[in-house]
């Protein structure tokens, strides 16, 4: 990966991280490409796209997380946003869950390579995690779900009563879809408290972070 381009992307996005963290992100990206030649970890294989659509996108998310919060990434795939998050906030406890074993093997490889502490990559369905980790997490996130209802329904039993859920999505849907989502979430006892929209560097698309909390805590 071109380190100069990654630095430009980070600067263009208005983000600030250390040189050590940039080198760690590059190591992650290079390993992702290497492993992806043998097992399907990501459909994004171009260096520039990996820099923007995986790494920088995850760094936008990281800005919304406090250092001492415990984070769960559901359906984490190749470890996004959980691995970039862990790189820039190394003290943060992070649990990354995916039902595909090869993706978890890759994440564990990265965790060993980068010497992560307080990072768990679990090959488990999120429903099974509910048995051991109910009400355990301050923040639950995912890029994996097209449906906010499904995301909240699966994550809610794992969320601390004062916690929040953050869905990483594409451009904001139309008002009719938003209203439908709000109604479905209300039935689950949750509400959308904020939507943060942002643009990826170099006109690479728009993204949204949808912040969701229990109605009683909102």
UniProtKB/TrEMBL annotation:
MF terms in GO: methyltransferase activity
Lineage top rank: taxon: Bacteria
An example Gene Ontology biological process: methylation
Predominant localisation class: cytoplasm
Pfam families: GidB
PANTHER family (alphabetical): S-ADENOSYL-L-METHIONINE-DEPENDENT METHYLTRANSFERASES SUPERFAMILY PROTEIN (PTHR31760)
NCBIfam families reported in the protein's UniProt record: rsmG_gidB
Chain's role: Specifically methylates the N7 position of a guanine in 16S rRNA.
Protein's name in the database: Ribosomal RNA small subunit methyltransferase G
Source organism of the structure: Pelotalea chapellei
Lineage: Bacteria, Pseudomonadati, Thermodesulfobacteriota, Desulfuromonadia, Geobacterales
Gene: rsmG
């Amino acid at each position: 990966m071109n380190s100069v381009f990654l630095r430009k992307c980070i600067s263009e996005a208005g983000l600030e991280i250390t040189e050590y963290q940039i080198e760690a992100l590059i190591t992650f990206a290079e390993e992702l490409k290497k492993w992806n030649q043998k097992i399907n970890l990501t459909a994004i294989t171009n260096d520039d796209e990996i820099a923007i659509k995986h790494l920088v996108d995850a760094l936008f998310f990281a800005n919304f997380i406090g250092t001492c919060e415990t984070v769960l990434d559901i359906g984490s795939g190749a470890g996004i946003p959980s691995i970039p998050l862990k790189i820039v906030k190394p003290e943060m406890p992070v649990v990354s869950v995916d039902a595909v074993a090869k993706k978890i093997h890759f994440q564990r490889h990265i965790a060993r390579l980068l010497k992560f502490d307080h990072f768990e990559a679990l090959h488990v369905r999120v429903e099974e995690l509910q048995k051991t980790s109910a009400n355990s997490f301050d923040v639950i996130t995912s890029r994996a779900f097209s449906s906010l209802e499904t995301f909240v329904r699966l994550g809610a039993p794992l969320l601390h009563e004062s916690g929040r859920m953050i869905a990483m999505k594409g451009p904001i849907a139309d008002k009719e879809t938003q209203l439908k989502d709000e109604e479905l979430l209300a039935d689950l006892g949750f509400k959308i408290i904020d939507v943060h929209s942002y643009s990826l560097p170099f006109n690479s698309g728009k993204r949204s972070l949808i912040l969701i909390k229990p109605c009683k805590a909102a």
